Amino acid sequence: MSKYRDRGYWISQHFYWQSMMHYLWYALRFRSFTFFSACAPAIDLGGMLDENKSDIYDLLPDRFVPNTIRVSGKDNISMEQIEIVGLTFPLIVKPNIGFRGYKVVKVFNLQELNSFISAQSERREWLIQEFLDYEKEYSLLFYRIPGSGRRGITSLVEKIYPFIVGDGERTLEELIDVYENPFIDRDLVIRRFQEKLKKVLAANEKLVLDEIGNYARGSKFLDIRNQIDLEMEEVMRDYFKEVNGLDFFRMDFKSDNLDAFKQGEFKILEINGAKSEPIHIYDPKNKFLSNVKTIVQHWVTIKNVVKERKKQGNYRFPTTRYGLKSLIAIKKLVK
C-alpha cells in the first residue's frame, strides 16, 4: 500500500499547506519570520526547528522525565554507563535533535545499542532512555496565555500502535507480509522478530509491531477530546506552574490511563513547542471542514500567546538569519 493512498498522508499535507498560509499572514502581522518563538521562549526558536530534546527535559519537573543519559558520537557504550544511572534493557535510543520518530529505536541488549549507533553515517548526540512500560501513550496540546490565567487543552489523542492479530493458521511472517500500513518499517519489524517469524499466532492473539507512537512509524491516533475536563486543565496548570516560558506545547506521554495521569502517574516522552500539530485531525472520524476549522483555531491560539507575550514588552523575536540557520541545520540532520 502506497503512502499516497493513505488518508493520514494527505492530512499531513493539508496541515502543512494551510499552516503555511497562516504562518505567512502572522509573519506579516508581527513583522517577523520567527514570531512563533514567542509562544515557547524557554525553547530555542519556540521549539519549531532544531532544539535539543535534552534542553527541554532540563526545564521539566524531574519526576515526569524518563531516566536518561546523553552520549556523543559513535563511541561504544559500556554496561557500566548504563547501570550507573539505574537503566536496564530494553532501552529507547533517540537523536537529541529530531522529529516524527526519526531514528528512534528500541534496543534489547548492549550489542544492539552499540551496533545501531556505530551504523549511523553522521556523528550526533544520542539520548538513551528507560523504556516506559505503561499501558497507553497519549498526546495532549496545551496552551496558556501569559499573564492572564487563561489556559486550555485543544487536542487529546490516544495513540494506537501498529499490531497484527493471529488467526491460528498463518505464521508471523505471513501476517506481517499482508499487513497494510504504508508507514511501518517492515525491515525493522522483520529484524526484531527474526527468531519468531515461523511461529503461528493463535486465533485473536495480538502482537504489537512497533512501540514508537508516531504516525510516520505506523501508529494511529484516536481523538479523545471528549475526555478533556476542567480537572485535566487544572492538573496541567499545576504540573507546569514552575516552568516559565513554555506556554504552547504538545506533550507526548505514557500512563496507564487518564485517571492515573491526573494523579501524577505518568512520564513525558517528548515536548514539542511551536511545531506541534493538533494530531486529533488524523482520526478518520474528523472530516475535512472540521480539520480546516481546527487548524484555523490552532494558529489563532499561537497568535494570542505571541501577542500577549509581546504586549508584556520583555521579548524580542530572533532574527530571520538565525531562523534560517536553524532550518538548514535540521534539514541536514534528517535528510
Write the layout of secondary structure elements.
Blueprint: H1 7-30, H2 53-59, E1 68-72, H3 79-83, E2 91-95, E3 105-107, H4 110-118, E4 125-130, E5 136-144, E6 151-160, E7 163-165, H5 172-178, H6 186-192, E8 206-208, E9 220-223, H7 230-239, E10 248-255, H8 258-262, E11 267-272, H9 288-311, H10 320-333
Antiparallel strand pairs: 1-4, 2-3, 2-4, 5-6, 5-10, 6-9, 7-8, 10-11
Notes on the structure:
With 335 residues, this protein is of the alpha+beta class. 33% of the residues lie in helices and 19% in strands. It contains 10 helices and 11 strands. Helix 1 runs parallel beside helix 9.
Short structural summary:
The chain has a 5-stranded antiparallel beta sheet with strand order 9-6-5-10-11. It has helices at residues 7-30, 53-59, 79-83, 110-118, 172-178, 186-192, 230-239, 258-262, 288-311, 320-333, and strands at 68-72, 91-95, 105-107, 125-130, 136-144, 151-160, 163-165, 206-208, 220-223, 248-255, 267-272.
